[in-house]
Amino acid sequence: TLLFLSLSLSLSLFADSLSPPVNVTIKALKANSAVVTWDIPEGDSVIGFAITQQKKDVRMLRFIQEVNTTTRSCALWDLEEETDYIVHVQSISMSGTSPLSEPLRFRTPKEAETQASKSKVTMEEVGQTTQLRAGELIIIVVVLIMWAGVIALFCRQYDIIKDNEPNNNKDKAKNSSECSTPEHPTGGLLRSKNNNNNRMPSVNIIEV
User: Fold this and answer.
1) Is residue 23 a contact partner of residue 36, using CB atoms and an 8 Å limit?
2) What is the secondary structure of 167-181 as a DSSP string?
3) What is the DSSP letter of 104?
4) What is the pLDDT of residues 40-95, one digit of tens each?
5) What band does 7 get if pLDDT is binned at 50, 70 and 90?
6) Alpha carbons 112 and 82: distance in angstroms, whole number
7) Per-residue model confidence as pLDDT tens digits over 146-202
């Protein structure tokens, strides 16, 4: 008996040394559900958690316990809208449970408020999406205008080059006609001169 009492006393002392969870908060609060989150003090060897959920001014409790887990959050479900709740969190170790955390009090909203919050978020998302699409359209329009300008400049340069081609052909034809030899060779005069030079001079002999 003394051994059992000493063992129980040592276990209870070890369990008392386990610190309660800290930074207990509520997230994703809705009319019928919520999520409890918490932190574990550094150095505590924890294998699970226990949560007590109670309506304000009501003695009935809901007890949630989970072991072999390192999670630091738990979902609360089947809540009533516009109702006050009190939540405590405990850490579970191999030797037992920690003291209760500081009580966390919260109130669930109306279902209509939840729907309004959802619609507000949806409208904000739609507005952001619209802004992104408008920016994308502006970029596309600017790019198309730039491409249209490049194509128009190319067509204009092509027309100028095409218009200058007949004039270049005419100039080439004129230059070739000036440089070509006519049907009667230009050396005719020289030939006539040479022929004259090759004739023997005429000598008239007068007898007396």
Assistant:
1) no
2) HHHHHHHHHHHHHSP
3) E
4) 998 888 999 999 999 988 888 899 999 998 899 999 999 999 999 999 999 999 98
5) very low
6) 11
7) 888 889 888 888 878 877 776 666 666 666 655 555 554 444 444 444 555 555 555
Distance, CA of 60 to CA of 85 (rounded, Å): 11
Domain membership of residue 62 as a residue range: 15-109
**pLDDT range class, residue 22, cuts 50, 70, 90:** very high
Phi/psi at 125 (5° precision): -65, -40
Q: Is residue 119 part of a domain?
A: no
Instruction: Decide: 67 and 48 in contact? Cβ < 8 Å.
Output: yes
- Specify the CATH number for the domain of residue 69: 2.60.40.10
Residue 20 host element (H or E): none
CB 92, CB 50: distance < 8 Å = yes
Please tell me whether residue 19 adopts helix, strand or coil conformation.
Answer: coil
Report the number of distinct structural domains present in the chain. 1
Residue 99 has a pLDDT of: 93
Q: Is residue 79 part of a domain?
A: yes
171 is a domain residue: no
Residue 159 tokens, joined: 């027309």
Q: Which of 53, 60, 167 is nearest to 103 (CA)?
A: 53
**Cα–Cα distance between 96 and 47 in angstroms, integer?**
10
Confirm if 54 and 89 have CB atoms less than 8 A apart.
no
Q: Is residue 97 part of a domain?
A: yes
